[in-house]
Every structure is written in C-alpha cells, then in structure tokens.
Here is the input.
Amino acid sequence: MEPNSVGDANPSGTAFAAPWDVSYELHLVGSRLLAGICASLHPLNLVVAMLALSLVGGAAWVLMDETAGADGPFLIVAGEAIGAPRMFWAGGGDFWEQTPYAAARWHMQPWWRLSAARGGDFWLQLLVCGWGLVVWSWAATAICRSTALRMLGVDFHWSDVFHFTNRHFWDALFSILIPLVAVVVLSLPLVFVGWLLAGDVLSVLGSLVAVSLSWVGLLTGLLLLGLSLSWPLMFSALAVEGRDSFESISRAYAYLLQRPVTLLGLALAGLILGGMVNYLIEWFFYLSAASYEWGLAWGANALNSERLTTVVQPQESDAPILHVWTGPWLRALFVGFGLLNLAAQQLVFWGLAVAIYLLMRRSLDQTPLDEIYQPGQATLKPLV
Here is the structure.
C-alpha cells in the first residue's frame, strides 16, 4: 500500500485541519458562560457568599469604624442606598455597577485603600485586607469547586466540596500571597533608598541609587498588573485542577500572557452577560424588598401613616425600645435584601471566572471542557 493511500494509518504530509467555525465558537462561549452563571446560583453557594461578605464587612466595621453607620457591618456589606425609591433598599445603581466588575472591585478596593493608607490606618487596613483574603480564600474555593462540578454535570456531595476546600485552603491563600510577597521583597531595596533620602546629604547618593533601581518599579508593576487581572483564574484553576498554589499561579499568568486577546474577549462577553443577569437579580431583590415593605406598611400605618418609618428609623424622642431593639432589628432585616443581592452578584462573578478558565484552558492547552480533577484520580497523565 502506498504511504499516502487512504488506508494508511500514519499518512505523511501536512495533517488536515478542520476550519474554524465562528458561529460554533460564539455559541460555545455564550453557552459556557451562561452555564457557569447558572451553576453558581445555588442556595448553599449563596449562604457561603453571604457569610463571607458578613465576616469581611464585620471586620471592616470593627477595625475601621469611621466608615460605618449605625447599622455597622450591614451597611458595609450591603452598600449604600443610591437613589432607590424605597427607603429600605440597599441596592441600586446604574448598569455598570451591576456588572461583574463591581463584584471584582469589592475585593480589590481594600487593597487600593491600603496603598493610600498612612500611619496607624495602614496597619488597620492591612488587617482588613488580610482577613478578607483569608475568608475569601476559603469561600471562593468552595464556590468555584461546586460551580465547576455542577457546570460539568458531576455528581457530588457538598461534604466533598468542603473537604476539598479545607484541603486546598492554604494553596488558595498562597496563590495570592506569593505574588504579593514577591512585590514586597523586590521593593526592599527601594525602602533602603528611601532611608537615604530622609537625610539632606545622603539624599544625593539616594537619588542616584533610586535612578538605577527604576527597573524594580517596572517589574513590581508587571507583577501587580498580572495579579490584578488574573487572580480570579487562580481560584478557578485550583478548584478545577486540584493542584497547588504554584500550578494555579503559573496557569493564570500563562493564560494572561499567552492569550491576552482571547482573555479580553471572554472578559468583555462575561461583563455583558453577567451585567444582564445581575440586573435581573437586582430587580428581583428590589421588588422583594419593596413588596415586603408594602406589606408591613399596610398594617403598621393603618392608624399612623408614618408609623413604619418611626419604628425603623426612630428619633431621639421616641421610645427607647425602638432604638435598642425594634429599629436595629428591622433595619438589619431590610438591609438583608441588599446582602442577598450582593451575595448573588458575587456568585455570578465566580461562576463566570470558572467558565472563563475552562474556555481559556481549552484554547491554550486543548483540554476538553468537561475534564476536572476528582479525588482518587491521578493529577498527571501516564506517559504510556
């Protein structure tokens, strides 16, 4: 038989490549992003997100109490009222504020504040950032793991998800800490130069050394840029692959550096699709809070049209019990609708992160979308 005949199992020459189907790829991207969102919106995931938001918001209230109002952590985690027609609704905002970018900004904003903090506020803000990182290292890993399993149709028990999360908690934590520690270590020479600049005479030498170390700023900026753009992929990689922190860091940075255009396209698609879903979630909880308020007002305002307002937001002249019990309890209850809204939007964000990771892995590594690590499986494929 000739080498290039039809029956040859190993034909020579250039292999045939199937044409790239644009419509199929667009349908695949849209369906996978939507599947990630749907898989993330599970009641137990919602509970995990609410607990994480409350723990981080509560720490911010205790350590940085100048940012909180009378309701403490509730207003921090549920956000401020932004012109909503109902007095108890803590959501609101324009379409951009409902995109997954707002959920990502919620995680990054404490670190932005840390860069501008000085003196004692720096250490308090560092505690807030560290506590938030600890809480979300566990919560994000659990959410991403359950989302990936549900998205790929794998049967699982929630106890397995939490066991997986506990086993990989330190991997998730160090996935973020390792790049941050690298930035701190690279910045140590600049700290020494800063000491030289503190004196008038030594500042001459310090300025010369500072110029020679300008590359340090470029390198730390590159590390921080990569971290700020790829950190959601680190948790997703850990949840899907079940490896260690170095594996999740390398995959996240590799996907960003080797396929930046693909990642940008998927991120934009996720912003649009996630924004539309979040807008529906926003309206659902707004209507829930409004109807709940209307029902209470129907009874409370039967004799006094301002009674519900007085109970929830009592004045100094009102009964003490309204200040110490009824008012705070009802305010926390109503703001809880805003907390549910924020938690659901966090789930949309993490669902998109898992979906984007799977699509990036398929694009760069040609790995099937339904391949996921499960305990008992080998993490490395055999050589034979």
